Inverse folding.
């Protein structure tokens, strides 16, 4: 385990840099440290940079996330936030705009369908899939028919996706399971797919996932090493993308934010940290180690 030192600020010593549990992860971390100018760090937002909260509209980045990113980003090829949220929402809830050190941050929203670049402070995106509006119109009746209207909450995602949250329901897991089949059928009728997450089912167009977004971005930037951190089932495609990049000779480090709800992600990770606070500590340790 590496422990960086910082004699310039003895009152606030940096976090130690944790050691990945796998050989591939150790190689990935070593590559980031050896060639930071060729390294891409990509991070999910909810559950990774921001704590999970009952109301997604109240989610905000961990208070130390932006300072940690601003310290790290100038030392890397790029830092990207890869999220299912609309890009502008992630920028606003993250507090990423006009931050010194984050002048070249990129936010890939809606699983890469949208892109915000800090250098221009603008979002670019294609036209929304027409099935999203059709699904949204049918959701109230479907929730009533499924007996899951109580506590279920529908999140609009800028016309590009719709998410049904069950975390507020009297029995969140029962409501989640009751809705999987009906929402799957509804999505299929309108050319969409259902992406399950932690007490949430998202209906969105096919071909949009974090793996595709991360692969395209890594190739665009010519990444020589990739670190990806996530916390939910929607991050599995990004994990698979890093594993594919490894097979092509690009070292990578897979980080899982937390272990309690998505065991599959934790089992595939090279390094498991304690939620957003652990992710921030890792970013801070990297920044300190890179000097």
């Amino acid at each position: 385990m590496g422990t960086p030192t910082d004699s310039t600020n003895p009152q606030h010593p940096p976090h130690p840099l944790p050691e990945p549990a796998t050989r591939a992860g150790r190689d990935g971390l070593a590559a980031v440290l050896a060639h930071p100018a060729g390294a891409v760090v990509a991070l999910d937002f909810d559950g990774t940079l921001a704590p999970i909260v009952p109301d997604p509209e109240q989610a905000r980045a961990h208070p130390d996330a932006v300072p940690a990113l601003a310290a790290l980003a100038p030392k890397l090829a790029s830092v990207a936030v890869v999220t299912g949220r609309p890009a502008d929402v992630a920028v606003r809830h993250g507090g990423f705009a006009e931050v010194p050190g984050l002048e070249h941050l990129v936010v890939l929203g809606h699983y890469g369908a949208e892109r915000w670049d800090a250098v221009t402070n603008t979002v670019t995106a294609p036209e929304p899939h027409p099935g999203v509006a059709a699904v949204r119109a049918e959701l109230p009746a479907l929730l009533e028919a499924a007996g899951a209207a109580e506590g279920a909450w529908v999140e609009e995602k800028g016309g590009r996706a719709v998410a049904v949250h069950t975390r507020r329901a009297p029995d969140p897991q029962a409501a989640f399971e009751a809705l999987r089949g009906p929402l799957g059928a509804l999505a299929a009728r309108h050319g969409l797919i259902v992406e399950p997450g932690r007490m949430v089912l998202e209906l969105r167009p096919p071909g949009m996932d974090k793996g595709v977004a991360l692969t395209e971005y890594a190739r665009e930037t010519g990444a020589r090493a990739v670190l990806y951190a996530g916390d939910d089932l929607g991050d599995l495609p990004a994990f698979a993308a890093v594993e594919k990049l490894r097979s092509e000779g690009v070292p990578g480090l897979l980080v899982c934010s937390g272990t309690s709800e998505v065991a599959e992600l934790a089992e595939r990770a090279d390094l498991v940290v304690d939620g957003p606070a652990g992710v921030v500590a890792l970013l801070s340790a990297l920044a300190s180690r890179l000097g």
About this structure: The chain has nine helices and twelve strands. The longest strand covers residues 225-230. The two ends are 18 Å apart (CA to CA). The chain has a mean pLDDT of 91.
